[in-house]
Amino acid sequence: MTKVMYDEKNLTMEIRGHAGYGPPGADIVCAAVSILCQTLIANLERWKDQGWNALEWHTETPGECYIRCTPYGYYSLPVEMFRFTMVGLKMIAEEYPQHVEIIEQGGE
Hints:
108 residues, 2 helices
């Protein structure tokens, strides 16, 4: 199962585990989660000079992704990027509840 841990207050997201929906390399659920994670990272990297002073991420281990963004005070663009990504991840979790679990904290 893939677990997505999201903390909006601290702007962190951690994704761990393989969905187990299909064989390795052909798992559509893992692929969907992965592309959302990669898209978030790419967008944060692209806009990082627009209002946040720290962006940390790593995806070295297959099946794991960690993203942390530290804005200058409160800045809505990175928050909205994380929220946008969470919409997609929640849709996947609703469609494949045995394969993706969402754990949220620190939200509105």
